[in-house]
Structure formats: structure tokens, C-alpha cells
Amino acid sequence: MKLIFLFIFLLGISRSEEAHSNSRIIGGETAHISQYPFTAAITVQTNTGRYFCGGALYSQEWIITAGQCVDGAILFTIQLGSTKLTEEDPNRLTVATSEYVLHPEYNPLTLENDIGLIKLRMPIEFTDYIRRLLPLALHELPAKPDLRSIGWGQTSDSNSSLSEDLQVVRVASITNDECKIVYGNQITDKMVCVVGNYNEGACHGDVGSPLLDAYSRYTAIHVGIASFVSSNGCESTDPSGYTRIYGYVNWITEVTR
Q1: What's one GO BP annotation on this UniProt entry (predicted)?
Q2: Residues 228-233: contacts with CB under 8 Å, at least 24 apart
Q3: I need a surface site. Which of 25, 43, 54, 108 has the fewest CB within 10 A?
Q4: Per the domain annotation, does 234 fall within a domain?
Q5: Residue at 208 is within a domain
């Protein structure tokens, strides 16, 4: 049985020093803001350091991300409206936050219920570059061949830099029974695993980013939240793990109403 390895990303002194344009989600290509105007770049300050996570804009006031991204957080800095991490972008909006909500049954050891919500200090105005992600998954995600994983995570196990440009890669979801062959009974019904054609998928720095069921170029359903990778590394052919959104729709609705 292979241990689940967390992939929240520890930032150095300066994010600009960490980011390089040749770094990306494993096997990905550059994404465009017109396709992903809901994407959120999140810097998290805790007692142990500064971390980077992804997220998705759910409403004018709320961001959906992973539980591990809000657990123990002191301060968030959230960037919306840009697929660039550090380069100048006139469409970028940096927003302050007022509170976060960690799922009450989140388990940092097993990553069960790995979901959290961040509330913005003030409601934002939507633009051509900032839109909410609709809808959330309304049914269980079956094994499906054409999903999208996005994020600013690193490109390889040897390159620890974040990507300057948001990356997107096509992946396929597999059954939980297939995923248990790799991870054993650590996989629960509220998790979903994905694989690429070879080793494409999420890596360190992608945690909290959405997994999307893309019906068309401009329509996507939020079906998962990046949560874990194999202890064998991002470049292995082992599946990446996500929190299934479907099981938390009622909780999200209740918290954000």
C-alpha cells in the first residue's frame, strides 16, 4: 500500500523567485482566462510558513478550495482574473478575505473531507475575466475519459518551481476500485482518482484547484478538488486524488447562503 502524499506548496522568500515560465502541471499546456475566469491563486500564511494553493470562485463572496489550504490559516491573499502568477496583468484583482470555513470532519492524516471555503471581505464585481464557476456536480462522477485538471503546480519532481502560467491537462477519472489497487482502503466514496494518457496530472502547488467536466470550450462543471498524489512522485503513472464535489453540495450551499 502506497502512502498518500500531501502536495500543498511551501513558498520561499518571494513567489516571483519561485516562478518560472517553463514550469507547469504535469504534461499540461497554457490555459486562457476566457476558459477559466473562475480560477483563484491563493497564498496562505500559517504559523509554519507561506503556502500556495489553487481554488475556484463560487460566488461573489466565496472561494472553494481544499481543506488543507485553510487548516490553520492566519491570512490569505487571493488573486482573480489572471492566468499569470507574477507578471503584470491589468485584469488581475487581488482581494482580501474575512473568514474561512474548514469542513468539520476534515482529517489531515487521511485527507477525508478535504474541502474548505474562503469568504471574501467584500463582494466582487464580475468582469469578462472574473466569473463564478457554475454549476457544481449534481451527480456522482463515473469513470469518464475527458476531464480537465488545472493549476499552477510544478512540472516535475526535480523542478520545485511554480508555473508562471496557469496550466490545463486532459485526464480521465477511474473507478475507486481501480484507485484502491494503488492506495488501498485510504480511498473513500468521497474521493475520486484521475490518470493521464501517460503520467499527466496534478503536482505540488495544484492542491485546491478544481477538476472540471468540460461540456464545451466555455462550459465546465466543478466535479473535484485537487487533494493528493502518490508517494512515488508526480511523474509516476499512479493516479492523482481529488475530493468529489458532489458529496458536499449541500454543505457548500448551507455555509454560503
Answers
A1: proteolysis
A2: 228/4, 228/5, 228/6, 228/7, 228/111, 228/114, 229/5, 229/7, 229/201, 229/202, 229/203, 229/204, 230/2, 230/4, 230/5, 230/182, 230/183, 231/2, 231/3, 231/4, 231/5, 232/2, 233/157
A3: 108
A4: no
A5: no
